[in-house]
Automatic annotation (TrEMBL):
Residues 79-172 form the PPIase FKBP-type domain. This is Peptidyl-prolyl cis-trans isomerase. PROSITE patterns: FKBP_PPIASE, PROKAR_LIPOPROTEIN. It comes from the Bacteria. It comes from Parabacteroides chinchillae. Gene3D superfamilies: 3.10.50.40.
Amino acid sequence: MKKYLQIALMLFCVLVVSSCSKNEDALEVDEAWKIENDEAFQAQIFAPGFQQLKSQSNEGFILYKVIKEGEGKEPIYYTSTVKAYYKGSLIDGTVFESHTFEEGAPSKFEVSGVVDGWTTALQHMHVGDKWEIWIPQQLGYGASGKKAQAAGQITILPYTTLIFELEVAEIVKQ
């Protein structure tokens, strides 16, 4: 019986030590980064032309400004698939992803398959609409961030405010 107790105790110690070890895949950020991004988002609330849209998940709101109003009248649903041009940047202006008109064809995606901030915006947009959107971290990549998936891509740190210029080109499927 004493032997089994010793084995159980050793297994417990191994589990405790392994759970305390640092996760090498986790993205880390200092508190100053989080504060800087939160403050930038809060300051944007008072910028001329920006309005708030409550998120579908009730986790907060996005800020948006209409750059161009399109001719489309057909609604975009959570289950829709759309094509859009966009440019995503950080609060310092660094572009982390871009599919602009100048770069070629629009990107195709399901509205339900993007970050909550985009899902919220798209369900209020129509074909031809072009908006500037500010997405707070909790409606973007949150506390986990997003690692670069390929060479040339930028890692998005946890607690990052995302800024997009988004233009709906087409509704592929309702």
